[in-house]
Write a structure and sequence with these properties.
The chain has 269 residues and is an alpha+beta fold. It is built from eight helices and ten strands.
Length: 269
């Protein structure tokens, strides 16, 4: 469901689900009951399992019950459960591990990291990021923050500033805003490299989708200082709003990226 376009276009996971819905089981004439209108039965199972993820019934990294157990519990066929799990896996909410089972995705996993990080090195390298926090504070939400995060006028946010390196090359400054009400005490924590893992494990907030907008900019004075380049250096700005499983905007992230050694990779299908 990750939106890697300049504005909100359907993604690979969403397109797969749309295609499955068009040909899915559980529609009129399938011989099964329990559908709502023309919703395929597997989509109802998908929604049930998604609710469990949203309610933190299963924690990141935890193995799910077997397909047979879930089918028996939910009163559907094992094939229906498999289709629902396939859709959740396509959305990177679950991870299939050969011979071991199906697990809740952990944002520390390489697969999950690269689901949301689209920056890649131009040459050889793993592309794995590292980060260092340069500032964190709680404050009244600005008009932009209220608009991006759908907050009331009196809301407060926690702002995080950090620099990131890809393959040890300093290249990104991030300004991250999150609602203080959803992340109490986060300003006092030692923040990990992968914030989405912290959101899930400590606060029960799992990032499901993200909308990104890309723009070419001239780097500002603060970003230039942190990245050790002259002000006005050309850069790529990535404006991201992250959405959780309950479809709430929970993070606004503005990333200023030097692109001498990296590029933004978007795979279109």
């Amino acid at each position: 469901m990750l939106d890697t376009s300049f504005d909100a276009l359907p993604t690979d996971g969403a397109l797969r689900r749309h295609a499955m819905e068009r040909s899915g089981e559980g529609q009129a004439g399938s011989g099964r009951t329990g559908t709502v209108g023309f919703r395929p039965l597997y989509r109802q199972v998908y929604d049930t399992l998604l609710k469990r993820l949203a309610d933190a019934v299963w924690q990141p990294g935890q193995i799910l019950p077997s397909e047979g157990q879930l089918a028996l519990e939910l009163g559907v066929s094992q094939g229906t459960v498999r289709k629902a799990l396939d859709a959740l896996t396509a959305d990177s909410l679950l991870v299939r591990r050969q011979g071991r089972g199906t697990f809740v995705a952990d944002h520390d996993d390489k697969q999950s990291v690269f689901r949301f990080l689209k920056l890649r090195p131009d040459g050889d390298g793993t592309g794995m990021p590292t980060s260092r926090v340069t500032g964190i504070a709680e404050a009244a939400a600005s008009a932009d923050e209220r608009g991006r995060l759908d907050l009331v006028r009196s809301a407060r946010v926690v702002r995080i500033e950090r620099v990131r390196a890809v393959d040890a090359k300093l290249c990104v400054v991030e300004t991250i805003s999150v609602p203080a009400s959803l992340f109490p005490g986060i300003a006092q924590l030692e923040l990990p490299n992968t914030l989405y893992s912290l959101y899930a494990t400590r606060y029960g907030i799992t990032i499901a989708t993200a909308n990104e907008r890309l723009k070419a900019v001239a780097i500002g004075a603060r970003e230039a200082e942190l990245l050790e380049v002259p002000a006005g250096t050309p850069a790529l700005e990535i404006d991201r709003v992250a959405i959780d499983l309950e479809e709430r905007p929970v993070e606004w992230r503005l990333s200023t990226c030097l692109t001498q050694d990296i590029h933004y990779l978007s795979v279109l299908r």
